[in-house]
């Protein structure tokens, strides 16, 4: 009886789990058995691995009974990346190559799909697998050659990017490596400027004329990662404002970069050699997008949606009332908890989704309604009511900032007033506000005000007495719900952080109430807005 164990990784959501690929080769009825809650794509590994061994690295033990167990057996296994671990464990257990013994597999992880020729093919999710391997004390990993740089992003991980099964066998045995030496990736600290769906490096806040109150609201939203709703007639600049929000967000930290890049790796959208994402990602799905593409899901295998790919970045949902009702209602979970849980059959996955969600809507279906003036809108009041009804109360209650975007006259260059601030200037203030939050929450599991639980706010970081009394009056009057009360408290703290105030008082509470309210009578204080004169 011969036995060997090689290690690979399973992904549940974006979290990796170490899998022991145990192979027993023994006399008996000639058959190959693969067990351990495997799906169809993994069941087909028996044929892929058999042909790969025969064509590239020896012969399959055709006269023996081969039993392959992927443990733990209660964890669902899916994907083709187990091929390499299975093949190496079979070779070590059968000991066709006398110097390839089972003990040589200790401390290694094996990731890659095999072709019938024995060549290794890239697979999605290499980065989160390498992160999980490092967390379990595995410091060496074999991956397909094109993905060596991706796996090398994990600090302290020695990565061998190989082309074939024969190369893996040669490295383990210390023999001469055929074809070409493997790519050994250095510990990667390289960062890329790739930011998801589209690059927005050519936009800046200086491009926006006027809109001073909206600019302030956007700055507060960026500082605390507060969900933001922009409402206004078409052509007033809602999309232009949203596109510039990534430009005022600070660079991702190394931890955030690893987390975001791992999500893109799971989806398979990470370009080869892209490195860590340095800038916050930006995603703006079309209003015809399905719930699976926005929230995550799919058939056969659960994948993260754009709300998770925009983690630590910006998710912009333009024409929000035109999105499908199931998408609108499903946005409750990420807006409330900052994560998305998807269940498909026996598979359940939870993905982080703590992005800055920006919603945009017109005041009516045609988009021409200008408040009391009516504009050139021909919609009936019934049509407007039906349009607004798609924005359910529970969704809007989870949006922290509601801002009306009004038509602006174009500022003639040099004619009056100061030029608009640049994104760099605003980003400096946003960064400073986030540093204050990071210091305040240094012993907590969250970093920003928008993630702070209500009980923790009430117990450890209450508002000043006058501020709390003002907010409680709104609650008693019915203009705030209990959820809205917590969100106003969070917003007041962000207003204070932006202003450099140690603790929110009545002025900060009034500003928070004005930002959250869609009542035009609640204007922002003039001293916060750069009004041209």
TrEMBL record:
Q: Which InterPro entries match?
A: CHLI-like (IPR045006), Mg_chelat-rel (IPR004482), Mg_chelat-rel_C (IPR025158), Mg_chelatse_chII-like_cat_dom (IPR000523), P-loop_NTPase (IPR027417), Ribosomal_Su5_D2-typ_SF (IPR020568), Ribsml_uS5_D2-typ_fold_subgr (IPR014721)
Q: Which residues form a coiled coil?
A: none
The Mg chelatase-related protein C-terminal domain covers which part of the protein? 421-516
Indicate the segments forming the Magnesium chelatase ChlI-like catalytic domain, all copies: 204-409
> Gene3D superfamilies, from UniProt?
3.30.230.10, P-loop containing nucleotide triphosphate hydrolases
State the Pfam families in the record. Answer: ChlI, Mg_chelatase, Mg_chelatase_C
Q: Which NCBIfam families match?
A: YifB family Mg chelatase-like AAA ATPase
- What is the protein name given in its UniProt record? YifB family Mg chelatase-like AAA ATPase
Q: What organism does the record attribute this protein to?
A: Nocardioides potassii
């Amino acid at each position: 009886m011969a036995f060997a164990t090689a290690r690979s990784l399973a992904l549940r959501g974006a979290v990796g789990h170490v899998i022991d690929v145990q192979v027993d080769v023994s006399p008996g009825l000639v058959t190959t058995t693969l067990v351990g809650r495997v799906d169809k794509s993994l069941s087909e590994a028996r044929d892929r691995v058999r042909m790969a061994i025969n064509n590239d690295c020896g012969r399959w033990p055709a006269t023996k009974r081969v039993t392959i167990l992927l443990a733990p057996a209660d964890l669902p296994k899916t994907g083709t990346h187990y091929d390499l671990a299975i093949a190496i464990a079979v070779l070590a257990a059968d000991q066709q190559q006398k110097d390839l013994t089972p003990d040589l597999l200790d401390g290694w992880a094996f990731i890659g799909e095999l072709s019938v020729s024995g060549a290794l093919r890239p697979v999605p999710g290499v980065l989160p697998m390498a992160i999980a391997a490092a967390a379990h004390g595995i410091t060496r990993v074999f991956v397909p050659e094109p993905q060596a740089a991706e796996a090398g992003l994990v600090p302290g991980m020695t990565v061998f990017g190989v082309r074939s099964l024969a190369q893996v066998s040669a490295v383990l045995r210390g023999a001469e490596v055929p074809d070409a030496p493997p790519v050994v990736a250095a510990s990667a600290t390289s960062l890329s400027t790739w930011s998801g769906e589209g690059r927005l490096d050519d936009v800046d806040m200086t491009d926006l004329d006027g809109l001073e109150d909206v600019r302030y609201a956007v700055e507060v939203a960026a500082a605390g990662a507060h969900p933001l709703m922009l409402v206004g007639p078409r052509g007033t600049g809602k999309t232009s404002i949203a596109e510039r929000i990534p430009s005022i967000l600070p660079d991702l930290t190394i931890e955030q970069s690893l987390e975001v890049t791992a999500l893109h790796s799971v989806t398979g959208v990470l370009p080869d050699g892209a490195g860590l994402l340095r800038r916050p990602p930006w995603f703006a799905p079309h209003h015809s997008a399905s719930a699976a593409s926005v929230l995550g899901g799919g058939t056969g295998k659960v994948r993260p949606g754009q709300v998770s790919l925009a983690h630590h970045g910006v998710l912009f949902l333009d024409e929000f009332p035109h999105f499908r009702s199931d998408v609108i209602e499903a946005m409750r979970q990420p807006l409330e908890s900052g994560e998305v849980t998807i269940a498909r059959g026996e598979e359940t996955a939870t993905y982080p989704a703590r992005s800055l969600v920006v919603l945009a809507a017109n005041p009516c279906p045609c988009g021409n309604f200008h408040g009391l003036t009516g504009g050139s809108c021909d919609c009936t009041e019934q049509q407007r009511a039906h349009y607004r009804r798609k924005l359910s109360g529970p969704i809007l209650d989870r949006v922290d900032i509601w801002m009306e975007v009004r038509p602006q006259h174009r500022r003639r260059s040099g004619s009056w007033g100061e030029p608009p601030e640049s994104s760099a200037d605003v980003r400096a203030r946003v960064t400073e506000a986030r540093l204050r939050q990071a210091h305040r929450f240094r012993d907590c599991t969250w970093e920003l005000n928008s993630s702070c639980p209500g009980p923790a706010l009430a117990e450890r970081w209450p508002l000043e007495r006058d501020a709390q009394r003002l907010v409680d009056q709104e609650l008693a009057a019915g203009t705030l719900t209990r959820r809205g009360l917590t969100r106003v408290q969070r917003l007041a703290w962000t207003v204070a952080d932006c202003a450099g105030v140690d603790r929110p008082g009545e002025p900060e509470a009034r500003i928070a109430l004005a930002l959250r309210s869609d009542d035009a009578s609640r204007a922002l204080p003039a001293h916060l807005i750069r009004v041209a004169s």
